[in-house]
Amino acid sequence: MLRFSANISTLFTALPVAERIQAAARAGFKAVEMQFPYDLPAATLREAAHKAGVEFVLINIPAGDFAGGERGIACLPGREAEFLRGVRLAGDYANTLGCPRVNCLAGNLPEGETPEQCWDVLVENLRLAADMLTVRGVQLLVEPLNRADNPRFILNGYPDADALLTAVGKDNLTLQYDTYHAHAGGEDVLEGLTKRLMRIGHIQFSDYPGRGAPGTGELNFPRLFRAIRNLPYEGWTGAEYLCPSPGPGDFAWTAAA
Ligand SMILES: O=C(O)C(=O)CO
After folding, report:
1. Residue of 105, 153, 205 to test ligand 1 pocket, by largest number of atoms within 8 Å of CB
2. Which residue, by CA, sits nearest to atom 1 of ligand 1?
3. 4-256 to CATH, choices 3.20.20.150, 3.40.1260.20, 3.40.50.720, 2.30.30.90
């Protein structure tokens, strides 16, 4: 099934958040996602989504000092209590918003720590997070970022993410499949998505290179969208590309879907 959501952390960002939700609805989206909703009360966001007639389908767990370069704290020794506080906060927001899933950014390997130790911290943190979110009816996701953009991120490519899901061993932990990161990591996007489909909880897309709209790079989105439409996938497909002020013609790619 092919259902598009608008990531309002990358789309409509010239607007205040509540207006981004309205703008996404006017552009025809029935769902929105947001990387870090925590600057606004969850009730405010819920009211804005209800007024616009859209639903929240994905948010991230707090990821440390994101502006300062951190890409999650789930793998960081000594930050476990902070991580679990973030899981509780994300669970609270997800429940208030009626959002069915949250994504966890795994973190960058710190200088002076061994990958093995960070991996063990990540596995244990995700086991705890999966259990905490299961009782709330919220699905947990994880995604690798690509090495070129994020050279120290602990998950390099979807094979690492596959291994992580196996190590964590929780049915509530699924993959966030991002076309940009997958292609940047050298994966055939359609092949990678198809073979992992049963473990994918959410799809995000942007073109490569540049993380722009479909058609600005080298990915074949009409082929990809046709495939997602025909695959047994019940999730959402999130537009996570950089476009602060979309104009009327900027969503023409939905017609190619
Ligand atoms: O950087 C990305 O691709 C993300 O999805 C972060 O939320």
Report:
1. 105
2. 145
3. 3.20.20.150
**Domain coordinates of the chain in residue numbers?**
4-256
Which of 33, 55, 143, 187 does the annotation list as catalytic?
143
CA-based end-to-end distance of the chain: 11
Ordered alpha helix ranges (H), 135-206 = 158-168, 179-184, 189-195
Crossing angle of helices 17-26 and 42-52, rounded to 10°? 20
- Is the pTM higher than 0.95? yes
ipTM of the complex: 0.89
- The CA dihedral of 126, 129, 135, 136, to the nearest 10 degrees, is -120
pLDDT tens string 2-26: 999 999 999 999 999 999 999 999 9
Give the tens place of pLDDT for each residue, 217-238.
999 999 999 999 999 999 999 9
143 flagged as catalytic: yes
